[in-house]
């Protein structure tokens, strides 16, 4: 008779019924090779799972309002964070009106303002839920990895819920042995901003 060995893996404890697991409630932190000083030198060697963990970590930082931590995910120079107008998703910030067009200086100024009491629409801070899905990687070229990801961001404030739906377009690079964001373009699929009213948070 041949002995049968039980090779079943231990079960992971599930959250209570009705609990929604998001990047904020289960912020799996990527290893140092992804977000910190590690050994990432070849963007082409990164898997979709690697990039998903990086994006989930970004979402967790935003939901926790750790904006200083979020800034550390960005490259040191030539950065750009753009949110086009919802009626012109392909708009060029150089020639078209956009909702947000931040270089590294304006990005730091935005974070400084949101961290202070001067941001009246976000003091105290809203509760947010950044959801990332449908992550797709392009071909790495010229030291950059193009990544697209669909998003839904919920904002809860003063008893009111609003939402933003669209697609992120990233250009990722390696810096100091970790992955960093060179550019992020958040295109809204919504035909109007009326459900949200304004855009005072970071998508």
Rounded average pLDDT: 81
Described by the principal axes of the CA atoms, the overall outline is: globular
The strand count comes to 6
Spatial strand sequence of the major β-sheet: 2-1-6-5-4-3
| Helical content class | 10-25%
Q: Note the gap between the termini.
A: 61 Å
CATH class: Alpha Beta
Q: How is the secondary structure organized here?
A:
Blueprint lengths: L31 H4 L12 H16 L3 H5 L8 E5 L13 E5 L1 H11 L12 E11 L7 E13 L2 E16 L2 E11 L15
Parallel strand pairs: 1-6
Antiparallel strand pairs: 1-2, 3-4, 4-5, 5-6
Annotation keywords:
disordered N terminus; 30% strand; Nuclear Transport Factor 2, Chain: A; 4 helices; 6-stranded mixed sheet; alpha+beta; 203 residues
Task: Describe the 3D structure.
It is a single chain. With 203 residues, the chain is α+β, with helices and mostly antiparallel strands. It has one domain: Nuclear Transport Factor 2, Chain: A (Roll). 18% of the residues lie in helices and 30% in strands. It has four helices and six strands; from the N terminus they run αααββαββββ. It has a six-stranded mixed beta sheet with strand order 2-1-6-5-4-3. A hairpin with a 2-residue loop joins strand 5 and strand 6.
């Amino acid at each position: 008779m041949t002995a049968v060995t039980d090779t079943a893996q231990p079960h992971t404890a599930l959250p209570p019924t009705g609990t929604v697991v998001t990047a904020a409630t289960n912020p799996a932190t990527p290893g140092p090779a992804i977000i910190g000083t590690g050994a990432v030198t070849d963007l082409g060697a990164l898997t979709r799972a690697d990039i998903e963990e990086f994006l989930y970590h970004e979402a967790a930082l935003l939901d926790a309002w750790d904006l200083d931590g979020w800034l550390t995910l960005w490259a040191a120079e030539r950065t750009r964070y753009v949110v086009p107008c919802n009626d012109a998703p392909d708009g060029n910030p150089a020639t078209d009106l956009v909702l947000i067009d931040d270089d590294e200086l304006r990005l730091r100024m935005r974070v400084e303002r949101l961290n202070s009491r001067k941001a009246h629409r976000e003091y105290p801070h809203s509760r947010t839920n950044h959801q990332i899905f449908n992550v797709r990687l392009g071909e790495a070229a010229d030291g950059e990895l193009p990544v697209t990801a669909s998003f839904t961001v919920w904002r809860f404030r003063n008893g009111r819920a609003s939402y933003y739906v669209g697609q992120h377009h990233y250009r990722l690079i390696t810096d100091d042995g970790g992955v960093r964001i060179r550019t992020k373009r958040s295109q809204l699929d919504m035909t109007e901003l009326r459900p949200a009213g304004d855009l005072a948070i970071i998508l």
